[in-house]
């Protein structure tokens, strides 16, 4: 049953909305504001910029595929061919027959796996120490460790060469693996991720008598799945594409990795550019497949670690 007061407070039928909103403002009632619609021109411009950027980024990959599947010598023809005149696999067959591509591929896998395992283990342990353990000089040590990111890799290659030569491992797998067994960025990423782990879980485990090792293995490590995925992808990609240090540390062509093998093909008297592109396709495809398979964990790990 309506009362006379409620009838008086209700807006009159047929009253314009502006009058009702004005009355609400006078009465102190706030009405929700509608968000302004985005301009269609801005959305169209952003779409055009994204398409152009995608074309620019994808064109080298498309050109690599075109040259790899084109007949030999067609790359020197007149005009720009966006499609091969005839699809052929002879470039892949010729490269696989003349050069130890299988050995280079296996070397890249062996070095990449060892570097990835060592880097992930060291990064997780060091990140846990910097994030959850309390010790004297923790912040100072971390800042000094983080400052090494500003040192270019080329500036320490002479010291690395003297180190591996003094350890008598020059020219072996370990000459490439050991200097890459830990990265400052991996430790930084692990620390940032582990700072976001709820302290209530860690404190509860400590109250139950768990030590630092048990806390790491039972609490921190099971929650670090996205972090491990990011570290594995970044480390494996970096090791797979590394060129400068394997070129210095390896002297036997049978121990070359795929990037060094590409330079070996290019350094021939009569470079086979179709074969070089075929070898580049062989080198790129495993990493593309790996990234597509773990893309979800890759993005999630970066978001949870707070790295933008």
- Major beta sheet summary: none
Name the beta content range: under 5%
Number of strands: 0
* Structural Rg: 30 Å
Order of helices and strands: HHHHHHHHHHHHHHHH
Distance between the termini: 59 Å
Query: What structural class do helix, strand and pairing data support?
Result: mainly alpha
Helix content: 55-70%
What kind of assembly state do the chains in view correspond to?
single chain
Low-confidence stretches: 4-15, 17-24
Q: Helix count, per DSSP?
A: 16
The coarse overall form would be globular
Mean of pLDDT = 80
Describe this entry's structure for a reader.
This protein is mainly α and 308 residues long. Helix content is 67%, strand content 0%. Helix 5 (101-132) crosses helix 12. The relative contact order is 0.12.
Give a quick precis of the structure.
By secondary structure, the protein is an all-alpha fold. It has 16 helices and no strands.
Defining key terms:
308 residues; mainly alpha; globular; 16 helices
Write the layout of secondary structure elements.
Layout: H1 4-9, H2 17-27, H3 40-68, H4 90-98, H5 101-132, H6 138-147, H7 157-166, H8 173-177, H9 184-195, H10 199-207, H11 212-220, H12 225-241, H13 244-249, H14 258-266, H15 273-293, H16 295-305
Helix pairs in contact: 3-15, 4-15, 5-9, 5-12, 9-16, 10-11, 12-15, 12-16, 14-15
